[in-house]
Amino acid sequence: MNDxxxxxxxxxxxxxxKFLNTAALAGLTVGVAACNDKPAASAAPSAAAPAAAPAAxxxxxxxxxxxxxxxxxxxxxxxxxxxxxxxxxxxxPSGRLFKRIPVFNMDCLVGWGVTNESKKIxxxxxxxxLKYHTGDTHHIHPSYKDGTYDGRYMFVNDKIxxxxxxxxxxxxxxDKIVELPLVQGFHGTFPDKRDPVDPAINxxxxxxxxxxxxxxxxxxGKNMDATADYRSIFSxxxxxxxxxxxxxxxDGNCDLVASSYDGKLACTNQxxxxxxxxxxxMMSAEMDACLFFNIARIEEAVKAGKFKTYGGSKVPxxxxxxxxxxxxxxxxxxxxxxxxxxxxxxxxxxGKYYACSGKLSPxxxxxxxxxxxxxxxxxxxxxxxxxxxxPEIGLGxxxxxxxxxxxxxxxxxxxxxxxxxxVEAAIKSYKGDKTAQPVVDRLDVMYQPGHGFTSMGETKxxxxxxxxxxxxxxxxxxxxxxxxxxxxxQLIDISGDKMKLVADHAVYSEPHDSIIVPRNLVRTRxxxxxxxFPNAVKDAKDCRVERKGKKVTVYLTSQAPTxxxxxxTVKRGDEVTIILTNLDKVEDLTHGLAIPKYDINFIVNxxxxxxxxxxxxxxxxxxxxxxxFCHALHLEMRSRMLVxx
Length: 645
Ligand code: K7E
Ligand code: CUA
Ligand code: CA
Fold this sequence. Notes:
Elements: H1 8-12, H2 22-29, H3 59-63, E1 75-80, E2 87-92, E3 97-101, H4 116-122, E4 140-145, E5 148-158, E6 163-168, E7 173-179, E8 184-191, E9 206-213, E10 232-238, E11 244-250, E12 257-259, E13 265-270, H5 279-282, E14 287-294, H6 295-303, E15 317-319, E16 333-339, E17 345-347, E18 353-357, E19 364-368, H7 369-376, E20 387-389, E21 397-402, E22 407-412, E23 417-422, H8 423-430, E24 439-444, E25 449-454, E26 466-471, E27 487-493, E28 500-507, E29 514-518, E30 544-548, E31 551-559, E32 562-563, E33 567-571, E34 575-582, E35 591-595, E36 600-604, E37 609-615, E38 620-625, E39 638-644
The structure holds sulfanyl-(tricuprio-$l^{4}-sulfanyl)copper (K7E), dinuclear copper ion and calcium ion (CA).
The site of calcium ion has 10 residues, from loops.
């Protein structure tokens, strides 16, 4: 397969298959069955056969990618956690898991969803209970400055409830969550990289969000059968305030999202041009689209009052439909036709191109940034003319990473491969040059890759060292652990001509997209500043119980190996708020507080303050104890809560 002399159609691995037929589609819908239809060299994963082990390199070489005890990883990888609702931090190349960041989920370890502070971020109902307990994180992207990561924030979507969360990168904790109006299935998200108009703003101030599922705009149960009126919405959130700035009504739907390096455009691939409600309707058209949003024009339209509002939301919604945008010179949105049911759109690090993969077409469509701008100027007859290449690369292409050396790496879900293709060769081939060979390498992965991404590949500093393939199936790659398998994250060295598989990392379900960032770009703090918390209990001497009617506040500190109060007394029926400040200043010295039968469990990191509120409805003695091993006398670190009958 990897022989340089292999013909391009062999390398492309598609030959007879062209566009997917109905049988292959049936295979797609049942998951992995379609992977039987693949070249002989890439053995199909069967239930038990560990057949497809890569024989490409010696075991000794694999050691090169290990990180010895006491040594630090070269890269961080920040990963979404799918329907776990969280995000994770790994080290690369080791694949070691460092941290799970609770975002939309509840988390016992840190008390996310337990403390008052986290509940406020997550959002509550009028009775103070959490509005949602679930989330589905797919795409995680940091804020930018001058085309690369600035280490301030990461943004991540919740597909289920249509929420966007922000994670502070100094503490790696979620600090804001916003719910998008009129949106279900918020899928792709991407921060902008600079302002479209003001050159001084060369950093992220907006976050773009693609709404995948079309719904009635007044979703009040009165118009559910009028499916032709269902609409999808593209949203823009302010990166600082995390308020929704504006939204765009589109024809069809949004899926993944990318942003341009010059700040002028955001784009989303669209698999449901048909506006179908059932899956066969969504696959009926031969072509779908990639939509480009003209950010400056949209914001002018909002300023000029050319918007509507829907369903009780106050957010301005501009018209991005084809009917409302017939003249390119005033259009807010450009619809570029691409292969059937695309999945994924990625901007190349040089800012020139967007790769939009076919999924149901064995092609990647390459769209040139400047030509889209030309269309908006009225200088391109047809939006399709913005397409500069459409190489046939294999079956089920999804996501594309770039190496900064002119090559693209696309995951092939159905072929269970990564295909490396050369951008310039693809452009030449599209122009009719028969000698141009777009596909330069392919590598089997185990199995069914979803996202693949390169080190720094979504910045202008793409370094071309690693590609990580986040695979959806792992089957025979790890010891069996019952019906739910781990997923596989396969690390591939892309620094040479040939891709080299160098590690299999088992990861808990289910990562979608991740990024790989050199360690020097991430600057975290290990100890909080006590003054960041207005309710901090700054001295053990300040520990006390204050009562106002039935409301009782317990001021508490922790300092290994004691809490500031040996016991505290409340009355049955009191509303009790415990404020706990960790006075320890030593790095890594975290304490916890758990109260049996009261469902309280949270941690306080060095110099951090958190609080919980509950009704003392059960009289008796309750040992409030430290959960986080902190000291030789950790087990002795406990106080009594006395609830009088
Ligand atoms: Cu392909 Cu939600 Cu990015 Cu999953 S999406 S893989
Ligand atoms: Cu404090 Cu354990
Ligand atoms: Ca379609």
